Amino acid sequence: MRILITNDDGINAPGLQVLTEIAHEIAGPQGEVWTVAPAFEQSGVGHCISYTHPMMIARLDQRRYAAEGSPADCVLAGIYDVLQGGRPDLVLSGVNRGNNSAENVLYSGTIGGAMEAALQGLPAIALSQFMGPETQDLDDPFEAARQHGAAIVRDLLERAHWDGGTDYRLFYNVNFPPVAAARVKGRKVAAQGYRKDTFFGVEPHHAPNGRKFLWIKGGPQHMPSLPGTDAAVNLDGYISITPMRADLTAHDALADLEARLT
């Protein structure tokens, strides 16, 4: 199996090393793991692509590249430049430092990498490690992802539906709970949730020269979403698995809107 991996935390992020281990376990001794990851952190870029300017790409080692672009850029670079059109069998994105549950999905570069792979017609899985008070005390805060990641990926490959024939094909979003690996209760298929009163905002600061700068500030991450949705099951100690598509149509509103406008 040939696997392409990327992330949004950057080429030197510890979570990417965890993903490399997972990918090698899945690919097997005769398989290939190719890394194309951002040269610098790209958290929060979503599905951004560098459409208006070029990006530099550098070979760091055998099958390991850094690109000055977003995770979606890295997937494109991997498919069309690094692999010279020799398409991978699977694209893995992560392991993100922090959760990509609930509203974080919309901002996540980790999700953006998996989404671009799906748009390219490839099987793709995004993986993220929810962080919290318990993970702060661990020698390895990625312990849950490291110990459970390969089994989740293997089960998805062998048992999940991949619907390669649809226009917006499925990809999967996996979040590991903020607990030690031994305290993971299991896995649950969960819809994307919504954390009420958890919004991004800005925090102003003034530089020594008097100029004003704004830092983007996130909301509290340990607010549960509705029962049974991703953030809620993560906070209850479960790995969440969420099937996703790039189609943003509000299908539930189509018939009502048509009736109102005709």
From TrEMBL:
Look up the record and name the cofactor or cofactors this protein needs: a divalent metal cation
Q: What is its main location?
A: cytoplasm
A molecular-function term among this protein's GO annotations: metal ion binding
Tell me which EC number(s) this protein carries.
Answer: 3.1.3.5
Keyword Cytoplasm assigned to the entry: answer is yes
* NCBIfam families per record: PRK00346.1-4, PRK13931.1, surE
Q: What is this protein called?
A: 5'-nucleotidase SurE
The protein's organism comes out as: Szabonella alba
Name the gene for this chain: surE
